[in-house]
Amino acid sequence: MEYFDIAIVGTGPAGLGVAFTLLEKRPGLRIIIIDRNEFSSGGLRNDCKMNFSWPVGFPEDDWDAGSAGRYLDRVEAFLAPEILARKGIDVYSHRAERLDVRLLEIRQAHLGTDGGLALIKRLVADLEARGVALSLGEKVLAVDAALGVMSTDAREISFGNAVIAPGRAGFAFLQDVMRANGVAFVDNVVDVGLRIELREERYPIVKDYYDPKFLFPKKVRTFCTNSRSAHVVQEKYEDEAGLWYSVNGHAWSRDRPANGLANFAMLKTITLTEPLASGQAYARALGAQAMLLGGGHPIMQRVGDFRLGRRSTRDAFTGDLYDFAPTLPSCTVMRALWDAMKALDTIVPGVLHPSTVLYYPEIKTYANKPVFLDPSTFLAAPRLYLAGDGAGTSRGITSAWASGMRVADGILAG
Ligand SMILES: Cc1cc2nc3c(=O)[nH]c(=O)nc-3n(C[C@H](O)[C@H](O)[C@H](O)COP(=O)(O)OP(=O)(O)OC[C@H]3O[C@@H](n4cnc5c(N)ncnc54)[C@H](O)[C@@H]3O)c2cc1C
User: Fold this and answer.
1) Weakest mean pLDDT among 33-37, 90-94, 100-104, 185-189
2) In this structure, which residue's CA is closest to atom 27 in ligand 1?
C-alpha cells in the first residue's frame, strides 16, 4: 500500500489551498490529491468570480472578520487576480438604505468559465511540477482515520493525515466519512430560491459592479450574478432517493461574444429545527416536487404572467410575446423572495419587467456542520481534517481556498 504524508480528497479550491500552502512551507512532503472527476468540478470551472471581502462566502460560526481578512489577503496574494473596478453605486446604496436593504461593497475578480478552466490547468500543471501525486477520475469510497487508510474504487492508500474537501456535491460521501469516524454533525440549513434572468439593460448596476450583493430583510440575498455573456444552467443531483435539478448560472469571459443578458439568484436561508433536521433531505424533497410540477425540469415563469397570477405557458418562451428567449429553454415561485424582488425593482428599476424569467428551484446545501475537535484548524478526528463547502466551512471559491489554508496551517503546526 502506497504511503503519503497527506492525502487530500477533492481538487476544488479547498483541496488546492491545502496543497499549495503545504508545498510552500514544506516542499518535501509526500502529497496525493484525488478527485473522482477528470477536473475539479466546482466554481473554479463555473464562472469563477472571486470575492475578497468579509463576510461573503464565510460562515460566521467558523470565521470572524479578522481571521477571514488575514486569509483573504493570502488567497489574493497567491492567485493574484485582476480586481474589478466598482463605480457609480452610491445611487443604489442610498435607495437600498431607505428600504432597509444593504448593498455590500466587495472586492471582486471575474475570470469567466473559460478563464477558470485555464486557471485550473495552470494550477494542476504547477502541482505536478512540484511533485504532487495527482489522481483524477478516482473515487474515494471510505476513510479510516484511526488506521490511516483510505480506500478508493482502484486501491488502498495509507496516509499520515487526510483532508476531506469534497464540496457540496460530495455532501453524502462526507456524511458517510463522518459517521464512520465518529464525527458528530448537524445538517439543518439550506438556501432556497429563484434564479432571475433578464436583459442586462434592465439591471444596469452590473456594468459598474459585477456581482452586486444585496442583503434584504428576512434573510434574503442576491447571489452569483452573471452578465455580458450569461447563461442559466441546470445542475443534476442524484442519490439513492432519486434525481432532481437545481438551476445555476455562469458567464463566459470577455473573449466570448456578449448575449446582452444577465442572471442572478435570489436566495432565502432556511434554518430547520427539530424534528425536521436534515437540510439535505428537505432540499431533495423540494427539488423532487419542482421536477414533478415542471414535468421533469425546473419550473420557469415570466414575471408578466406571475403578476397576473397564472403559470406561463410554452408560448411565453417560444413566441414573440416577450422580448428575449430564455437561455435554458427546456424547463416547464415565495413571499419573502417576491418582497425582496419588489424592493430590488425599486433600487434598480426594470428588474421586474414582464419579460424577466424566474427559474425555480435554486437550492444550496452547504450545511454539514461537523463538531470539530479543534475548530481553529478544522480537525474533526485525529489525523482527519475537513475543509471547504461540503464541511460547511466555506461558501465560495476564496473562502474554500482560505479554509484549505487554515487546515494546512494546522497540519504544519501539529
Ligand atoms: C455552477 C456553479 C457556479 C459557481 N460559481 C461560483 C463563483 O462564480 N464564485 C464562487 O465563489 N463560487 C461559485 N460556486 C461555488 C463554488 O464552486 C464553491 O463554493 C467552491 O468550489 C467550493 O470549493 P470546495 O473545494 O469545497 O469544493 P469543490 O470545488 O466542489 O470541489 C470538490 C471536489 O471533490 C471531488 N469529490 C467529491 N467527492 C469525491 C470522492 N468521493 N472522491 C474523490 N473526489 C471527490 C469533486 O469531484 C470536486 O472536484 C459555484 C458553484 C457551482 C456549482
Assistant:
1) 185-189
2) 167
**404 in ligand 1 pocket by Cβ < 6 Å?**
no
Q: Is 13's C-beta closer than 6 angstroms to any atom of ligand 1?
A: yes
Mean pLDDT value across the chain: 90
Distance 310 CA to ligand 1 centre (A): 36
Question: How many angstroms is it from 10 CA to the middle of ligand 1?
Answer: 8
Examine the pLDDT at 319 and tell me if it is beyond 80.
no
- Digit-coded pLDDT (tens) for 351-381: 999 999 999 999 887 667 899 999 999 999 9
The minimum-distance atom of ligand 1 relative to the CA of 387 is 26
Residue 27: CB atoms within 10 A of its CB come to 10
Question: Roughly how many angstroms between the first and final C-alpha of the chain, as a whole number?
Answer: 25
Q: How confident is the model at residue 172 (pLDDT cuts 50, 70, 90)?
A: confident
**How does pLDDT run across 3-14, given as a tens digit for each residue?**
999 999 999 999
Q: Is the CB of 388 under 6 A from ligand 1?
A: yes
List, in order of start, the domains of the chain with CATH numbers.
2-84+112-186+369-413 (3.50.50.60), 189-364 (no CATH)
| Residue 42, ligand 1, Cβ within 6 A | yes
Residue nearest to atom 26 of ligand 1 (CA): 388
Strand partners, 362: 193
Q: d(Cα 385, Cα 383) in Å, to the nearest integer?
A: 7
10 lines ligand 1 (CB under 6 A): yes
Total residues belonging to the chain = 414
For residue 34 and ligand 1, the question of a CB distance below 6 A is answered with yes
Residue 357 forms beta bridges with which residues?
197, 302
Q: How far is the CA of 410 from the CAs of 21, 160, 406, in angstroms? A: 11, 14, 6
**Which residue type occupies 73?**
D
